[in-house]
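Input (structure):
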């Protein structure tokens, strides 16, 4: 269980735009960065994230060919949707326009339960 109960209050939400050229883009960003206090490689963290996502609470997809996994995750219990990446020895939870704090908090709780170390949580925003 987590030793701390971090806040997943969302200070700002990105705005979804649809360019005429097609696709979807987001203006602004809020990311919660979960860093293990024990030294873990990106590969170890990717395996941990996969184990958590494979739990029956989530639907997910890694649908883009990028140099790192990028999961679009939906928590079936809360209906929260957010993106999950692993980068620089940390798990990143990317807030989408409709993401609520409860889904992020539940994901953090599961990461803590499935791992053998404490975690720190930082929130990073960029709204240019």
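Output (sequence):
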């Amino acid at each position: 269980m987590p030793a701390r109960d971090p806040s997943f209050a969302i200070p700002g939400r990105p705005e979804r735009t649809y360019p005429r050229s097609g696709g979807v883009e987001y203006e602004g960003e809020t990311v919660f960065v979960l860093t293990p206090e024990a030294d873990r490689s990106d590969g170890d963290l990717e395996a941990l994230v996969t184990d958590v996502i494979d739990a029956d609470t989530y639907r997910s997809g890694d649908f883009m060919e990028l140099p790192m996994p990028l999961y679009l995750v939906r928590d079936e219990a809360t209906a929260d949707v957010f993106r999950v990446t692993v980068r620089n020895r940390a798990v990143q939870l990317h807030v989408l326009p409709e993401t609520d704090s409860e889904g992020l908090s539940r994901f953090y709780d599961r990461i803590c339960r499935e791992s053998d170390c404490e975690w720190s949580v930082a929130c990073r925003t960029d709204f240019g």
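Notes: The domain at 26-126 is CATH 3.30.310.200 (TATA-Binding Protein). The longest helix spans residues 101-114.
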